[in-house]
Amino acid sequence: MLPLEDVELRILLGNSIPLPEMDYDDENVESEYGLPEAEAALRDYYFSSLTYNIGKEDFQYECSSVIDPILRYPLEDKIELCYSILKRLKIVHDFEFAYKPDIKDDNDVENILDLVKFIEYDCEKLIIGIWKYIRPDSSRVNFVLYCEQNKDKIFSELEEQIETHYFNPFITDFLKTYEGDKMIKWFCKQSERYETAIKIERLKE
Questions:
Q1: Annotated domain spans of the chain
Q2: Per residue, what are the HEC states of 102-138?
Q3: What's this model's pTM, rounded to 2 decimal places?
Q4: Over the chain, what is the mean pLDDT?
C-alpha cells in the first residue's frame, strides 16, 4: 500500500501518471477488470478513507461508506490494512499492543476493524453500562470534572464490564492495557457522545 500522501496525490491526478518500474503485464494478470492502476487507486482510496479519518469527527460516516467494498478485497490486502490501522491508532490515540498482533485470517481482520470502530464510536453499550452503576448524585453531570474526580470508581466498573461481558480479544486488550489517564480521557469523550442515551438510562432507574 502506498503512503497516504502518495495515495491522495494519485487520486487527485486521476491516477494518470504511471508509476516507475511497474510491470503492467503482471499487473493486468492480477487485475479483475483489466485496469490495474485504476483498481489500485480505488483500493487505496477506500483504505486511506478508513485510516486517515481515525480520530476525526466524520470517521463513522467515512467508515460506513467504505467498509463493504473493503471487506471484498483479498485477505492479504485486508491484513495490510489492519497493520496500517494499528499504526494510525498509535499516532492518533497513542495506543499500541504490548505485542505485535498476529493477523492471519478474516476473523482477525474483523476483530481489528471492530476494534477501531469501538475506539472511535461503537462503544455505547460499555459506556452506558458503566454509567448505570456509577450513579452520580446530580442529574446534571460535568463529564470532564466527574471523570477526573472519580477515576477509581470508573476503573472498578470498567473491570466489572470486562469480566461480565464479551469483547473480542483485541478490544479486551485495549480496555485492559490502555494507559490510565488516556483511558479516562477516552471514556469522558465517549460519555459526551452518548450523553442523551446516558440520561435516558438514568431516568429509567
A1: 4-120, 124-204
A2: CCCCHHHHHHHHHHHHHHHCCCHHHHHHHHHHHCCCC
A3: 0.81
A4: 85
